[in-house]
Every structure is written in structure tokens, then in C-alpha cells.
Amino acid sequence: MHMEQERQHIVMLPFMAQGHFIPFLSLARLILRRHPSSTITIVNTPLNILSLRSFLPPDDPSYSRVHFASLPFASSDHNLPPNTESSDSLPGIDSLALLMLASESLSPHFDRFLSSLDPSPLLLLADILTSWSLPIARRLQIPAFTFSTCGAFGTASFSLLWLHLPHRLHPESPSFHVPGFPPSFRLHRSQMSHYMRVADGHDAWSTFLRRQIRLCFSSAATLLCNTVAEVEPSALRLLVEICQLPVLTVGPLVDSGHRSGREPGIGVAECVEWLGAHRPASVLYISFGSQNTIGAAQMMALAEGVEASGVPFIWVVRTPAGFDMTAEFEAERWLPEGFEERAAQGRRGLVVPRWAPQVEILSHGAIGGFLTHCGWNSVQESLSRGVPMIGWPLASEQFYNSMVIEEIGVAVEVARGVQGDVDARKVERVVRMLIQEEKGREMKEKAARCEEMMMAAVAEEGEKMGSSLRAVEEMFEMAYAMKQDRAFEIGTKPKNGVE
């Protein structure tokens, strides 16, 4: 389909979390790669705009085409600590529901911003968790698509679980069926976050998430999904059936490696130098993401198991769950006595407080595996570099991401959640298996095949484009049709389709 070559304006509205900022910025880069004359405006609160800008340095090819607009927000008006504008700055997960509900207060400010644009933008790309913006776009006759920063299976599972809370129908059963899934499919209660397990449909979590999911499914014209069609084909078909929307796959949207504004616990050069002293595929990288941590007893067991395995490691540590995650990490308090000193001997291990350059670490040839919380950004960063995983999901859709990568054969799950016992001997066995044994080598081969599929999805050779680049083209075609040709009424759903 011929499309106008004139400059077009797209507005993006991510949820207030760094884990959402990264894929939105990566999507902006992907769009501008195909349509370099377009302009993209990313809208958020003032402190989040500062964070977003730090991910887009002046030497980035997209720098001149990505703009930012801030909306007023006072966290203290919502019983949040001062200057708390993202989930990353919360003192703990308990405050996340307050932030989610507070995010809806941006609605009148976003309405004024969107109404002020002249000419009106070609398209609004809203986060599923900012679906409160969809009725605003509909009233202004602006095409509105939603974007899930998760994978297809994670999006489908997370949505259906919050909409139906099916575990409440069988309170005595450890496992249960999820409406919308095949009859044989069952989930275990351990594959739910604490807030989902105790939800009753009227709590703050249910109130916010159900409202956003329902708005997404009823008011979006299309759903973009941060996955690769060839990696999640069956989950993609399931997602289309569930949401009754066209689904376009635009992944993998991974961190470009640009530094954020935070101070890392280890610099890139120091990290690369340390890894350079180790054999290829011999080091285990351990990280639970920027917002997560494990329990104190679990941390001790993990340390004991990793040390007993004899496998070299880089471990990004945070204060355990139940304590202030923003506090300085005290190795002598939270790790076995002498652990850090023994790890330093002969470069056996590297304990890094709070944050490390994950993209550079996973890209290094010395890395043989990744023990991860199974956040979707981390999963894609690992697979796009051919690194197999050990799963330890902690919250949200991470449990369902763990299921996907186990099914694909690129991961094995070692533990779940921040509560419950962790067997140090199991940790030892699984780490050795991944790094040193034949099964681990087989997982590496499968991860390498996933890497090939992911790279092919965003590859371009002449007129031949990968599936995710084709999805970007279809996104533009649909938006043009809605905006100019009026082929679709704003707010109604085109025929289901999967790119």
C-alpha cells in the first residue's frame, strides 16, 4: 500500500516505570528506522522525562526526532514519598498500587496536551497500563493503539488472571484452570504474585488493572506486542483470541546499551576486564532486575549454592525483600560470612551492589548463563544474545515468562517468589548443569536459534523485511486508513489479524 512520505507525528504514553521506558524508546527507534521523517513525542511526568532523556544521548541516531513532553504530577498528593514518579523510586513493592492509581490523575493534563496539538497526531501509542488515555484519543478522533511491553503469553496470562481471578473459585486447590485457555491448561498458586493471590476484585490492584485491561480490549484499535512472531507463535494466536484485536509483533525491543542516569555498581570497562579473564561461556550472570529482590534466607541459600557449584559469577545484589531496597547493600549482613572475600580470590566471583551494565555483560563471550527474575526485558536481552537462563520469577507476569522459556527449552526454573524455602543443593545442581553439562550445551544451542529468529525479525535486505519491521509498516497503514481514509471508525475494531 502506498503511504504518504510526509512527516507524521506519533505520541507515546508509557507507564511510570523504567521497565516500560526501555521498550517504548526501543520501539521509537524501530519506527524511526523505517520512517526517519516521523516525529515521536514521549509524554510522562517531569522526573520520568529526565530519566527518559538520559537513555537518548545526543549521538543517538533518533535524538533529533524524539521529543518529550512533561505532565504535572505531585506524588505527595497521592500518599507517595516526595519526588516519587516511577516504580523504580518506590521504597518497596507495597507502594506500587498507590502509584498505579495515582497515574490516572494524569488524565486531565494529558487531555489538555493532546487537544493542544495542531495538527493532531497520526497515532497515540498507549501502554496497556495507560489505557485510561484511549477515550481521550477517541473523543479527539485520533487513532489509538496499545502497546504491551510483555510477551504474548505473559500478556494473555496476566490479563486473564486479573480479569477473572479464577483461583478464588477453588480456594482449597493448589492449581486451577484459567478461563480462555485450553481445558488442559492449569496454573499453580505459586505462579501468582502475593497481590494477585489475595486480590478479591475490589482491592487497589484489581481496581486499577481490571480497568486498564478492559479499556485496552474495548477501546484500542490494535495491540502491539513486544515479542517475535516466530518465537511465540501459539501464544500469539491465543492472545488474538483473548483480546479480539489485531496483534502486531514488534520485538525484540531491547536496551541499546546506552547508560541511564544512575550510577552503576560497576563500570563497563571494569566489568569487561573482569570477564576477559574467564573462558568462553563459563560465567553465570545473576540479576533480579531494577525493581526486584529476593528474601533474606533465599539470598543466603543462593549464595551457598552458587559458591558450591564452583562456577564463576557476576551477581547484582540488592537489600532483601522486606527491607528498604534503596538502602546500601551490606554484604556482611546478607551473605554468608566471608563470601565476598572468597569470591574475590582468583576472580571467582564479583558481587555488584544495585546495578550493572546488563547489555554489555550478556553480550560478552564469557557469559554462559543468566539467572534471572524472568522480566520480559531481561528475557529478550538474554535470548537476543543467545544466552540460556535459570528462571526465578518473582512477580507480575514473570511466572508466565518462565513457563514460556522453559517450554522453548532455553531455561530451567530453580525457584519461585520471594517467600518459601530455597534448596542450596538444587541451586548448585542447576548452575552446574547449565554451565558445565550436556543439557546446558543443548540449551545454549536452542538459545542460539532464538537469537537467529530475533535478529531475522528486525533484519532488512533490499525489499525483504523481517516480521517485526513488517508489523511497523502495517501499523502505519492502519493508522493512515483510520486517520485519512476513514476506513475504520475511530474506536472500533478492525478484523482480527496477526502480523
What does this structure look like?
The chain is α/β, with parallel strands linked by helices. It folds into two domains: 9-251 and 460-485, Rossmann fold, CATH 3.40.50; 268-454, Rossmann fold. The chain contains 19 helices and 17 strands. The chain has helices spanning 18-34, 46-54, 96-103, 107-116, 134-139, 152-164, 194-197, 204-219, 233-243, 268-275, 296-309, 331-334, 339-344, 358-363, 376-383, 398-408, 424-436, 438-457, 467-485, and strands spanning 9-13, 39-44, 66-70, 123-127, 144-148, 175-177, 186-188, 223-225, 247-249, 283-287, 313-317, 349-353, 367-372, 389-391, 411-413, 460-461, 464-465. The strands form four sheets. A seven-stranded parallel beta sheet has the order 3-2-1-4-5-8-9, sandwiched between helices. A six-stranded parallel beta sheet has the order 12-11-10-13-14-15, with helices on both faces. The relative contact order is 0.12.
List the helices and strands and how they pair.
Layout: E1 9-13, H1 18-34, E2 39-44, H2 46-54, E3 66-70, H3 96-103, H4 107-116, E4 123-127, H5 134-139, E5 144-148, H6 152-164, E6 175-177, E7 186-188, H7 194-197, H8 204-219, E8 223-225, H9 233-243, E9 247-249, H10 268-275, E10 283-287, H11 296-309, E11 313-317, H12 331-334, H13 339-344, E12 349-353, H14 358-363, E13 367-372, H15 376-383, E14 389-391, H16 398-408, E15 411-413, H17 424-436, H18 438-457, E16 460-461, E17 464-465, H19 467-485
Parallel strand pairs: 1-2, 1-4, 2-3, 4-5, 5-8, 8-9, 10-11, 10-13, 11-12, 13-14, 14-15
Antiparallel strand pairs: 6-7, 16-17
Pfam families: UDPGT
EC number: 2.4.1.-
InterPro entries: UDP_glucos_trans, UDP_glycos_trans_CS
